[in-house]
Design brief:
By secondary structure, this protein is an alpha+beta fold. Helix content is 44%, strand content 20%. The strands form two sheets. The chain has a two-stranded parallel sheet with strand order 1-4. It has a two-stranded antiparallel ribbon with strand order 2-3.
């Protein structure tokens, strides 16, 4: 009886995940760009700071068809 339950569970798992295996050739890449805890971003000699951050984010987004930019906070003062 125990063997039947195990076999039934395995078959159910194979049937449930079969559509996912069929779609495996149609995958996409998602680039997640995360930033945070940068309340001190000094600009040295006119370079850096939030302007530099914006440039880096634009470059990263340009290199990926699908991307998400997430800012996790702490931009003005430490928590």
């Amino acid at each position: 009886m125990r063997l039947k339950i195990i076999i039934a569970g395995l078959l159910t798992g194979l049937i449930a995940f079969a559509p996912m295996a069929a779609m495996a050739d149609e995958t996409e890449t998602l680039r997640i760009i995360l930033t945070g805890d940068h309340y001190v971003l000094p600009a040295k000699k006119g370079r850096g700071g939030f302007a530099k951050l914006a440039t880096v984010v634009k470059q990263e987004r340009a290199g990926a068809e699908h991307s998400i930019f997430v800012h996790s906070g702490d931009a003005y003062s430490p928590s």
